[in-house]
Specification:
With 188 residues, the protein is an alpha+beta fold. The chain contains 3 helices and 6 strands; from the N terminus they run H-H-E-E-E-E-E-E-H. It has a 6-stranded antiparallel barrel. It comes from Desulfomicrobium apsheronum.
């Protein structure tokens, strides 16, 4: 007898495990809460995307921004002020550059309209100095359970700007080293 159920993809019968630090685990849990998914499904999604990028060539060659955003996962708070009424929203910075950020957060209640000017408060990984950057809304897209915002950001102090630049350079350096490692033969 033929089964009426069809599998949509290869059967998942291989289990893998790995170690990570507490900070990374906390960030994974935060992303999972925002995206309403399990850590396992998030990691599988990230791994699948990574494999597809390497199968199809680098997406960096297709980047059109003057200052490309780097993928990250940084918890943050949006602070906005409208008619002397302050509002705060927890969010997650998904990508970041010297002059823009992509943020994801739970959907704003319908009675709220998002503000065109706001501040983003966050702490870069492995750095205790919080950054407060002024921001201007570029675009937003809200689905049922979350909103994605792209904002132009501006570091208001030189020290904040230097910290952000250093962080972005560190990510770029790590990406370049990862790309070089993939090009080397296995015996090197």
């Amino acid at each position: 007898m033929m089964s009426i159920f069809k599998h949509s993809g290869p059967r998942k019968n291989t289990k893998i495990s790995f170690r990570t630090d507490d900070e990374t685990l906390d960030q994974l849990k935060s992303i999972c809460r925002i995206e309403n998914r399990t850590i396992s499904s998030l990691i599988e999604s990230v791994l699948t995307e990574y494999v597809l990028i390497h199968e199809n060539g680098s997406q960096a060659d297709q980047e059109k921004r003057l200052s490309p955003r780097k993928k990250c996962s940084i918890p943050a708070v949006i602070l906005s002020d409208k008619n002397n009424q302050q509002s705060y929203f927890n969010c997650l910075i998904k990508s970041l550059s010297a002059n823009s950020a992509q943020l994801v957060f739970k959907k704003i209640p319908d009675e709220e309209n998002f503000y065109s000017d706001f501040f983003i408060l966050f702490k870069l990984p492995k750095n205790d100095h919080p950054l407060l950057v002024s921001s201007k809304l570029i675009r937003s897209k809200c689905l049922e359970n979350e909103c994605m915002i792209v904002a132009k950001i501006n570091c208001d102090t030189i020290s904040d700007s230097e910290l952000l630049q250093k962080y972005l350079l560190k990510i770029e350096f790590a990406e370049n080293n990862d790309n070089k490692r993939h090009l080397l033969p296995n015996n090197q």
